[in-house]
Design a protein that fits this description.
The chain is of the alpha+beta class and about 60 residues long. The protein contains 2 helices and 3 strands. It has a single domain, classed as Ribosomal Protein L30, Chain: A.
Length: about 60
Amino acid sequence: MTISNSKVKLQLVRSLIGTRESHRATVRGLGLGRINSVSELEDTPAVRGMINKVSYLVKVIG
């Protein structure tokens, strides 16, 4: 069985002002800080769950 090294690239597109603290922590956990910051992460179920949680704040760009 081979392990693929697929990556997912995220961009923070909305401000964190007025969002829940847990959503802010999730965005920080994804490696995003400021608006338009980009992070490239391994495509794992944990990362996918974090993206789903804050899908209204981030955009998957690759």
